[in-house]
Amino acid sequence: MALAFIGLGANLGDPRDQVRAALEALGGIPATRLLKRSSLYRTAPVGHAAQPEFVNAVAQVETDLEPRALLQALLDIERRFGRARSFANAPRTLDLDLLLYDARRVREPGLEVPHPRMHERAFVLRPLCEIAPDTEIPGKGALAPLLAACAGQAAERLET
């Protein structure tokens, strides 16, 4: 079994409920078990700034699925939640990102693990530090200094 981390985010509809429901949906992925989930965090949008704030979280799962199959399961959940991809960094009902898969590095069309920008995003690093503070991002290092480098990005804990 592999350990994987999944980033969750939403800023349309009721983002808190969307992220909570998506956390539950992760437990329904075949050959996968939800191990840990972070608190919910309110964060400012990155990239396209003229949109509502996000609610974000990170989950740790144990899975027998290979990275591509796990990503496909995440995309299926996004579709069930009404995710539409109109343009990069657009508002969304749900966004699920495969952040880490063990210590593996994967680079294939449509799949890159570790997620290529996770080390620059407080909305990923803060909840990841909450549930797995000793995690290292392959090729980037320990979480604490990476999070310190994101000090100007607000990520306010909403609830546990």
Radius of gyration: 14 Å
| Order of SSEs | EHEEEHEEEHEEHE
> pLDDT under 50 segments (min length 5)?
none
CATH hierarchy class name: Alpha Beta
Gross morphology = globular
Describe the structure.
The chain is of the alpha+beta class and 160 residues long. The chain has a single domain (2-159), classed as Alpha-Beta Plaits, CATH 3.30.70.560. The chain has helices spanning 15-26, 67-80, 122-131, 143-148, and strands at residues 2-10, 32-37, 40-43, 54-63, 95-101, 106-108, 111-113, 136-137, 141-142, 155-159. Strands 1, 2, 3, 4, 5 and 10 form a six-stranded antiparallel sheet that branches. Strands 6-7 form a two-stranded antiparallel sheet. Strand 6 and strand 7 form a beta hairpin. The mean pLDDT is 91.
What's the arrangement of secondary structure elements?
Layout: E1 2-10, H1 15-26, E2 32-37, E3 40-43, E4 54-63, H2 67-80, E5 95-101, E6 106-108, E7 111-113, H3 122-131, E8 136-137, E9 141-142, H4 143-148, E10 155-159
Antiparallel strand pairs: 1-4, 1-5, 2-4, 3-4, 3-10, 6-7, 8-9
